[in-house]
Batch of 3 targets.
Target 1
Amino acid sequence: MSDLNPLAATFELRYKKAWKLCYEGNREEAETTAAELLLEPRLGRFHQAGMHLLLAMSPHDYVEHALEAVKLYTEMENREGVTVTEREQLQKLIGDANHLLNKARQDQTVADRNIQKVLATMTMDDLHDARIEEMHKRLDAEQAAEEAAAAAVAEDLDDAFGVAPSQELPSSQDVPELAGDSQMTGTDTQRTDSQRITVSRSVSIADSQRTETGLDDDEPLPDIVRYKFDDKKGL
C-alpha cells in the first residue's frame, strides 16, 4: 500500500475494513461501511465493485448491487493492459458476482410473492401510512450515511497519514485508474422492510481471493443474510 497516494490509501483501508467486518460477522457495520465508501466520488472501479459485491449479500437492493459488481469487474477484465494474474483474479471475482446475482434474483422472486400476499390484506390507510414511514426512514438513512462518510474520511486521513481535513487532497489524476481502482492489490433505491425474507445459507466459492482485495484464495464469501419478512411494514 506504500505505492498509493493518501487518498487511494485511505480508500484501501476503508475497503479492507468493510470486508474484515463482514468476515467477522459484523454485517450491519460492514454494510454501512461499504455504503459510505460508495458515496465517494473519486472511488476507483475496483473498490466500487468490491463494495457492491459485499452489499449483494445484504437485505437491501441486492439484485442491483450484484449487477453492478458484475458490470464493473467485467469492464476491468476487458481493459487493455491487464496482466495475466490480474485477469485471473478478475475472472474469479466475476464468477462470485454472477453467483450472488443468481441468488439475489431468486430471493427477489420470493420477496415479490410475499409482498403481493401482504398487499392483499392491507387497507389503503395501511398502505399510505407505511409508505410515509418508509420515506422518512429513507431520508434519515441517506442523511446519516452522508454525514458518516464525511467523518470517516477525516478520521482515516488523520489517523493513517496525519493529514488534517483542511489540507488539500490529491486530485483524481493522482489515483491511477486500475491502480486507483485498487491497484489490483487491493444510490440507492431502498428495499422496504416488507421485502425482507429469511435467507441464511452458505455461498461456497472456493476460488474467491483475498490478497489485498479482502478475499483469500481458499476462503468462501460470507453467508448471505436477508432478514425476516415483515408482513405489515415498509411498503
Target 2
Amino acid sequence: MDGARCLFLLIDCGQRETGGSALKPFRFEQPTRPGPATGSNSSYTSGSNSSGGLQPLSPLPTTRPLGQFGSGGPRRRPWLPTIIVGLALVASLVVLLVSGGLNLLPFAHSSGTKSQPAGAGATSDIIGHVFFLSSGQVNVSTSQGIADQVQVDLSKVPPPAPGKAYYAWLQSDNSVESQSILLGKLTLSQGTAHLFYKGDPQHTNLLAIASRFLVTEEDAATTPTVPSLDRSTWRYLAVIPNTPDPQDSEHHYSLLDHLRHLLALDPTLQKLGLPGGLDIWLFRNGQKILEWAGAARDDWNHGSTDLMHRQFIRILDYLDGIEFLGTDVPAGSPVLVDPHIGRVGLLQFDANQQPPGYLHHIGIHLEGVVQSPGSTREQQELAQQITEALNKVQSLYQQIRQDAIQLVHMSSSQLRQPAALALLDTLVKQAQDAFVGQFDPQTGELQDGVTQIHYAIERLATLDVTPLNNSSSATQQ
C-alpha cells in the first residue's frame, strides 16, 4: 500500500474484568474440510486425551482481568506492535478506542503479598517480583528481542549494613555452576527497590538462558563481577521451578520448559527454523492476517480484484498452514507467503497434525503450566484466563477462514458486488477483533485478543522473590 492508503497504528495491551465468569478449557474443535495425511505429533501432548483436546482445567475463581495479579505491577515499557492496516480499519479502531473511553490497564502482579504453589501446605512471604519484558528489537531468524529485559520490584527490604550494597543478579538454571548476569545495584527508598535492566546490545532472550534471580549484600565501593561465593551474603532468591511433571510420561516437561516453549524456544518450531517460541509467532501471524484483511478492503475500493484474491490466499495460508490448505483455495493457487513461515497455521485440523496449529499448541503448554510442580495459584489462574481468551480467538479465526474461503472462490465480477463487500467487511471486523480484542459497548472495555494474550503469556514468567537466611541459602539448588 502507498502512503495514502496505510497508517501505522500503535496499540498497547488492554485488559478487562472477567466478572467472575467460569473459565473454559481450551478444546480442540476440528473444522470441517479435507486435509492431508498427518503423522504422529512429536510435540507435547496431554497423555490421557485421545481426542486431541485438552483435559478440562479445574476452575479457579477470579474476578481479575487477563494478566492482572493485583496492584503494584511493573512499570512496563510495553512492546507496542505496529499494525499496518487500511484507512477504513484505522478509522474504525480510532472510533472504538476514543469514543469507548477504554480503560487500558497494564498486566500487573501484586507486590509484597503472599503466594504459594498449588497444593502447598503453607504460604511463603513474597517481598517482590521479577518480570521479563520484551524490547521488540526482533527479527524472524532469532529469539532476540523477546524476554530480553528485566524489571525488579521489591518491598519490605531493610537497609544494607554500613558500607554494603545490594546487587541483583540473573542466573542460569544450575546454581552450582551457574552463569550470572549483573542486573545492577539496588537503590532503596523507604524499603522499596525498583530496577530496570534494558538488556545487552544483542537483545539476548534472557529467559532462554536464565531462570534464577539472586540478591547479594556486598561491598558498596567495589562492584562485583560475579555473586559472592560466601552464601551468607545471599539475601533474596527467586527461581522458576524446573521439576519434571510426573504426569507427563512422554516428555517430563517442567514449568520452566513450558515457559521457554512459549517465550523462547519450542523444539517443534526450532526444527522448522522458527525461533522465539510459540507466542511470538501467534502474534506475528495474527498481525499479518489483520494487515492483509485491511489491504483487501482497500483493494475493493480500487476495484483490484486480482489483488483481493491474493490477500485471501495469504490469509488462508496463515490460518491453515500451507500443508493443510486442501481445497480451501482454488486449484493451482500459488503460495504467496514465505513457505518457511507458512508451514505452521493458526488453526488445528487433526489431533495428531504435524506441525500442530499455534492456538492448539499454546493451549497444550498452558495446560502444562497448570499441571507443573511449583506453579503458583496465580500462574494457574492466569493460564486459565489465557485459555478462555484462546477459545474466543480460535472461534474468530475459524469464522475468518470460512469467510475467506467464500471470497477466494468468487469471480472478479462477484467480488465487485455489494454482497461480497458486506462479507469482506465482516472478515475485516473479525480480524480486528481477533488481534486487537473485541470492544464491549456495555463495559467500555476491550475483550481479549491476540495482543492481550501476548502480554499475558509474558506475565506467566514472573518470578516471586523471597528472603533467604544463611542456612537456607547454603543449601539452595
Target 3
Amino acid sequence: MTAAELKTLLQTELKGLAAKFVSDDYDNAITSAEQDTGWSMPVTDDFKIKWMRQRAKRHLFSYRRDESADKFKYKQLSLNQRFDHFFRLIENMDRIFEKAKEESAFEFAGVGALNLFGTKVDAGFAYEEQTGRDMTYSSSNEIIIHPDENS
C-alpha cells in the first residue's frame, strides 16, 4: 500500500470527519505513523498496513482534538464532551498500540526467526577426517557469513 492509497483509505474510513482535514493533515499523519512504527511507505504486509492505518488515524484524531481544545467553553457552559471523547479515543488507541508492540515485537522489529540468534561463525580450523591433514586455509573451508535455514 502506497501513501496515496493509505490517504484514500483513511478518507473513506473517516467518512464525515474527512471533510474536516486538508491534504497536508493526511500527509503529516502518515509521516507520523511512519515515525511511530519505524516503517516507511509503501508497506505490503497486512500486519504493517493495519498498524500504519491505525497510527495515521490516531494522529488525525489528535489533530481534531487539538483543534477542538479552544472550542469547549461557551460563556459559562463547558462543552468539553467532544474534546474528552477525542482524548479518550487517542488514549485507548495508544494503549492498544503499546500492547500490540509487546505482543508482536518481532513483526514491529522486522526480525525474522532466522536472524534472532545472530550470525554463525565457525571455529575456523578444519582437518581431513582420515589423515588429519590441516585444511584450514583451503578454498573448500569457507566460513558462512550469512547463514540460511539449511546451514
